[in-house]
Amino acid sequence: MGVFNSDSDHEQVVFCQDKQSGLRAIIAIYSTALGPALGGTRFYPYESEADALHDVLELSRGMAYKNALAGLDLGGGKAVIWGDPERDKSEPLLRAYGRFVASLGGRYYTACDVGTYVHDMDIVARETKFVTGRSVEHGGAGDSSILTAWGVFQGMRAAAEHQWGTPSLAGRTVGVAGLGKVGKVLTAHLIEDGASVVATDVSERALGWARATYPQVDLLDTAEALVRSDIDVYAPCALGAALDDETVPALRAKIVAGAANNQLAHPGIDKVLADRGVLYVPDYVINAGGVIQVADEIEGFNFDRAKLRATKIYDTTRQILSLADAEGVPPAAAADRLAERRMAEVGRLRTIRL
């Protein structure tokens, strides 16, 4: 996948290499219309450079829309480090990456994502000030999965109200695909709300955690089995493309609302879901709690303030679902329209000279 011959409309894509440390990274800035681009760093063993490029372009675009709908004065960006985090991650590699982030002069703020953690951001921050998602002992907010899960739960409540008339999952069965950092916390919220949870994960460690912590959770062997099970809500909380041409026809849930990024395998899947009567809550709307948390850290982190902002994901989700009904479009299209409107209307103000 090329950059110039695509329709991505990215402002800047930077390829970063430091052979001595083994760093191979790509930083993509989709938009700075609302402010500096903010988005996490994904450390992942891609099959090819083309796969890494495709992922960073898709993820950075999603961050621009996510930040816009979250009401943040921040643009959208993302970075990927090509490699196995268990094998390749090191202090020299992370510090080399930090130097490349610093070279962008504040156009891009990085944070955690799949394969990176708060202690990694502490290392990156030794080379650049344009990093958030740091540990508490270094003045940061700590684990952003806490408010990510809270925001997903709020969006799920809004979807339940839209679909069934009550903003609660009590008495409903929710299928959680992925018991990672976010999936674990989301499971806790769901059980506390009175929902039954069915879950799956590729990691035996994660499944062991579920057996020990929440023995009432029904564990299935595969995501395919989860999709085909008798659930009310499907919550993809692992990697992207969870909703594809094979998954959607088999889906029995009436709501899809999860934490994973880029859940739609290709354009048009959202319409297929709508035609089947499945209410899809756009992932970049309800998983914005984490970016709200790390954005709050930039101005001096206050957990109560950040949680209040993440709670408003409930209101944003209601607004999008109502707009989708009024305009006769899938929720993803309604969300895109709202995000693009804010980027255009607020971004235009930057042309006014002070």
Tell me briefly what this model is.
By secondary structure, this protein is of the alpha/beta class. It is built from 15 helices and 12 strands. 51% of the residues are buried.
Task: Give a verbal description of the structure.
- This protein has helices spanning 49-69, 85-88, 91-103, 118-124, 145-164, 181-192, 204-213, 223-228, 247-250, 269-275, 283-286, 289-298, 303-311, 313-327, 331-347, and strands at residues 12-18, 23-31, 37-38, 41-44, 75-82, 108-109, 173-177, 196-200, 218-219, 233-236, 255-256, 279-280.
- The protein has 354 residues and is an alpha/beta fold.
- The chain has 2 domains: 12-63 and 73-136, Leucine Dehydrogenase, chain A, domain 1 (Rossmann fold), CATH 3.40.50; 145-287 and 316-339, NAD(P)-binding Rossmann-like Domain (Rossmann fold), CATH 3.40.50.720.
- The strands form 2 sheets. Strands 1, 2, 3, 4, 5 and 6 form a 6-stranded mixed beta sheet that branches. The chain has a 6-stranded parallel beta sheet with strand order 9-8-7-10-11-12, with helices on both faces.
- Helix 6 links the parallel strand 7 and strand 8.
